[in-house]
Amino acid sequence: MSFSLVIPCYNEAKNITILIDKYKKFLKNKNNELVFVNNGSTDNTDNIFKKLKKKHKNIKVCRIKKNIGFGYGLKKGLRMSKKKHVLYSHADLEVDPKDIMKCINIFIKKKNQSCKRIFIKGNRVNKIKNHWSLNDLFFTYGQTIFSSILFRKKIYDVHGQPVFFPRFLLNEIKYFPNDFSIDLALYLHAVKNNYQIIRFPVNFNKKGRLYGAGNSSNLSKKIKATFEQFYNSFKILFKGF
Fold it and tell me: I want to staple 13 with a disulfide (CB 3.0 to 4.6 A). Which of 30, 43, 67, 223 is the partner?
């Protein structure tokens, strides 16, 4: 059994070598592939990837010249990946790489029960313990309430990582947003189309990032990102999600 793991990266050069070390177990299976997306980085990311590709034969790199958004980079990486089972996550180390293997093990157990339409998604727990600010909590729970009302579906922690699904979901989905709303689009598609939704607890540590700053690292960025996601939520709704 093999898996594709897609990780979009934007100016994460200093985090990547640490990330690779934490993905040793995933890479040890030579049938697995790790697809890094250089999502318009302006730092030393390209040179880091060149070295990694020489050392690890099951690492691929998708290069995007201009950063259009997380969703755009993820979409390109997913299309480059080849395996029947797909996962994606972030590169910033706030997501624990060990959760990838937990996700895979959950799938393997369910597959043995002959269940094919499976969608697995991390559910971020212990938020206060993991250094979430009041702003983080407000925007996260606010989106849960907004999305659940708008789509009349019980959904929560839309941006929980990692995410797993079978490749054929990519052929079914109608709309890929270019921003972080891609998390919502994929999640809603699985809910609407009766996938078995499995949520498992993960620790999303806001102090896990060692270098760089995230796209929502300050209040103004959070507000901007929230309005973009509200706008895209309506587009997802009108396109039939």
Answer: 43
Output phi, psi for 200, to 5 deg.
Answer: -130, 145
Cα–Cα distances (Å) from 91 to 141, 143, 168, in that order, read 23, 23, 25
Q: 105: alpha, beta or left, given left = phi > 0 and alpha = psi -120 to 50?
A: alpha
Identify the sign of the CA torsion 215, 221, 226, 228.
Answer: negative
Residue 224 token pair? 């901007």
| Overall domain count for the chain | 1
What's the predicted TM-score (pTM) here? 0.92
Cα separations (Å) of 199 from 47, 103, 128, 150? 36, 10, 20, 21
Distance CA 73, CA 168 (A): 19
Q: How much is the pLDDT for 90?
A: 93
In order of 80, 137, 199, the CA distances from 216 in angstroms are 27, 13, 24
DSSP classification of residue 154: -
For 213, the domain range is 4-238
Q: pLDDT (tens digit, 9 = 90+) per residue, 81-136? A: 999 999 999 998 888 989 999 999 999 988 766 678 999 999 999 999 999 999 99
The domain that contains 62 carries what CATH number? 3.90.550.10
Question: Would you state the pLDDT for residue 114?
Answer: 64
